[in-house]
Write a structure and sequence with these properties.
Chains A, B: InterPro entries: Homeodomain-like_sf, HTH-type_TetR-like_transc_reg, HTH_TetR. Chains A, B: Keywords: DNA-binding, Transcription, Transcription regulation. Chains A, B: This is DNA-binding transcriptional regulator, AcrR family. Chains A, B: One of its GO terms (molecular function) is DNA-binding transcription factor activity. The structure is a homodimer of 191-residue chains. With 191 residues, chain A is an all-alpha fold. Chain A folds into two domains: 47 residues, Homeodomain-like (Arc Repressor Mutant, subunit A, Orthogonal Bundle), CATH 1.10.10; 129 residues, Tetracycline Repressor, domain 2 (Orthogonal Bundle), CATH 1.10.357.10. Helices cover 69% and strands 0% of the residues of chain A. The first copy, chain A, has nine helices and no strands. In chain A, helix 4 runs parallel beside helix 7 and helix 7 crosses helix 8. The longest helix of chain A has 25 residues. Chains A and B meet through helix 5, helix 7, helix 8 and helix 9 of A and helix 5, helix 7, helix 8 and helix 9 of B. Chain A binds a DNA duplex (30 and 30 nucleotides) through helix 3.
DNA sequence: TCAAGTGATGGGACTTGGTCTCATCAACCG
DNA sequence: CGGTTGATGAGACCAAGTCCCATCACTTGA
């Protein structure tokens, strides 16, 4: 059994989420996750590079969408327009069924420092990728920095809103970005 | 020897930075850091909660300055004005002698994923603390989110500029924040 | 002056994350 | 039917991190 059963990766993800949810991240050993999935520790580490990553798989795919979304934005679009292109491009992976476990996943991450750390790194990765794409388009360095940070903020806010209320992710993210843009434009200086 | 020699913590920090610099973070064991500092692994973990943290000590102190700086900003100051208060308040710890190893530290962090991960968490911590302080002042949630993210961006940019060019940190950070503010205000929408 | 107390350290056992290597077994292919 | 491929199992191994207890330097109070 186990051997050659399909979807080893998915089984590991589900087992991990269940166990983290039931008994907490720290009280769960990798060997235990593997066992529940009908696999072994060796196999776990063949699929995920460490204990945290099981909750963050699919990131690479998203980064490619970000890069493509920014590069594919219309010539005339400004920095934020290109960032919007990135958010909209990400929408193809944000489908209801694939993210049914989104809220549980968020709760588990929020409850643990190690996981929040990994989450912060992932977010920084989005920002870095957006910034690189913007620089590629000729956006000045400062503008690229600001636009990518605001883009990640919009992504975070949009994701949370989408998990809560559902709907079309592209639309939700677009609104979140516009919201953030208006707020940023309205901030006054210090003097 | 070693026992009761003063400054155990500082010795550990210096030993760690030296070793990470010489042979890389991954190739350095905690026991080795402790040994170079004339201490043992046990003592190391009494001073730092894990291997990464030795490069990030002093964070709590900075968070307190952030909180104080925001709370202490003048009544009439807006969100960004309060954030500026936080950056200026942090300047007391950014003195040339205490940060002589800043560039080496940055290089070591940039060279390693685990350390960049911790760095991302620390930055997220600054943002969270700033946001909390702004909410405390009655700033709307969205504005607090945007202002704190821009504040952290200004902190990062200002810190890098200060390490490179020196000068008064408060002044450098203030300029960085204003720069970021102007760039954010100038970003156009997507339509 | 000395005995008790305090606080930082040493030391070592132990668990677990993570790496590495080799054996095994199912499926595929000629 | 025999060889190849690719995912898995098994187990040794190292380092991170936890825990507990002994030890020693220094302080305090009688």
């Amino acid at each position: 059994m186990g051997r050659w059963e399909p979807d080893a990766r998915d089984r590991l993800v589900r087992a991990a989420l269940d166990l983290f949810d039931e008994q907490g991240y720290e009280n769960t050993a990798v060997a235990q996750i593997a066992e529940r999935a009908g696999l072994t520790k060796s196999t776990y580490f063949r699929h995920f590079r460490d204990k945290r990553e099981v909750l963050f798989s699919g990131q690479d795919e998203l980064l490619e969408l970000v890069t493509g979304g920014i590069a594919g934005a219309s010539e005339s679009a400004g920095a934020l327009g290109a960032v919007e292109g990135a958010l909209v491009a990400m929408a193809v992976t944000f489908t209801q069924d694939r993210w049914a476990n989104g809220p549980r996943r968020l709760a588990v991450i929020a409850a643990n420092d190690e996981l929040r750390e990994r989450d912060a790194l992932k977010m920084a990765g989005f920002a870095r990728t957006m910034k690189a794409g913007l620089l590629e388009r000729g956006v000045p360095e400062l503008d690229a920095d600001v636009a990518s940070e605001l883009g990640v903020l919009a992504l975070r806010r949009g994701y949370a809103q989408w998990l809560e209320a559902g709907g079309d992710f592209a639309e939700v993210a677009r609104r979140a970005l516009e919201e953030v843009r208006v707020a940023a434009a309205g901030l006054e200086g210090a003097e």
